[in-house]
């Protein structure tokens, strides 16, 4: 199962603490949310996925996630990477490398932000879809 397929329960969460972006093998674009997210297979054929999101509201999303955890709401673990960090450059380079040609412009646009969120994959339905 690769990140190119839908998430029919076959994806597993990869650790977000140390993602080796050079080993990413596929990327799937979601249109859910304000700007969409990218499901990235962290290691080839592993089925382990991390979620990457370009957002103009990184601080608010991190804060909301932490508040959610405090009150018992299931929220993904997440962290931020900034344009001043080498990880930010590696992430952008390798996600563009594995993007399908039809998705490349969207990937480039969404990753053209000074801060990116790296999030734990949680299986479920987007809010408003249930």
- Helix-strand topology string: EEEEHEHHE
Query: What is the makeup of the main sheet?
Result: 6 strands, mixed
- State Rg: 14 Å
Give the mean pLDDT.
85
Number of helices: 3
DSSP E strands, number: 6
Query: What structural class do helix, strand and pairing data support?
Result: alpha+beta
Specify the overall morphology. globular
Give the terminus-to-terminus CA distance. Answer: 25 Å
Structural summary, described in words:
Strands 1, 2, 3, 4, 5 and 6 form a six-stranded mixed beta sheet that branches. The chain contains three helices and six strands. It has 130 residues and is of the alpha+beta class.
What can be said about this structure in brief?
The protein is an alpha+beta fold.
Q: What's the helix and strand layout?
A:
Layout: E1 12-13, E2 26-30, E3 37-41, E4 48-54, H1 58-70, E5 78-82, H2 86-98, H3 104-110, E6 115-120
Parallel strand pairs: 1-4
Antiparallel strand pairs: 2-3, 3-4, 4-6, 5-6
What are the defining features of this structure?
single chain, 130 residues, alpha+beta, 3 helices
